[in-house]
Amino acid sequence: MSGIEWVVDAQGCSAESLRDSRLLRSLFDKLIGDLRLRPVGVTQWHQFPGSGGITGLCLLSESHLACHTFPEHGSLCLNLFCCLPREAWDFEWYLREKFSATSVQVRTIERPYGSTVAVKAETFLAIGGQNG
Amino acid sequence: MSGIEWVVDAQGCSAESLRDSRLLRSLFDKLIGDLRLRPVGVTQWHQFPGSGGITGLCLLSESHLACHTFPEHGSLCLNLFCCLPREAWDFEWYLREKFSATSVQVRTIERPYGSTVAVKAETFLAIGGQNG
Description:
The structure is a homodimer.
Chain A: E1 2-11, H1 15-18, H2 21-34, E2 44-47, E3 54-60, E4 63-70, E5 75-82, H3 91-99, E6 103-112
């Protein structure tokens, strides 16, 4: 049994968009709505001083959602870890459309948490979990 | 330019240890101390009801630290994303020693956030970043 983590790295984004907390909140809201994620508590947001970026961390029943922006590099790094199955989401389209990303790399990682210790991560197919 | 993310999945842990918030706080404190990480604000902790596990999320100047436990499966999933270089840390030893893990998988993922869009993630060697 395993969960899925999406590891998303976008580059070539507009620096202005990466300092716009409303855009980042909208990204989280859209993901949470579309994928029926269930936040537990309040999302933590931090804006780094000066020309720095923004970090957001959201604790989910399904695990977590995290995002970091680096305006000086035009880049955005996002993680979404779901211990329950969710359909694919078009990270690339959204980040190109809303943040003007010119390049988006989306990787999916299996996160084994089942009790069959001897089974290697790569052999897990089913996705399921404790938290809903 | 890229950061490093450690993706750690431990199995065969004692269920009791995975419901012990003090042990998880100690894990975070040890990582933060040893790797000279700089938390921004207060770590969020959530204990799922009944026999559920614990989630912890810590916003760092260097990115983030996240942990989820699944006592019913004897497993623990941890992420540490550092946008600045840090030495290796012996996740395996610690999780075997403190949580009685019988199997620990440690993966490292490069997270590109440099401004050279055309360069593939795999070619990044230098690790550096905005936030310290």
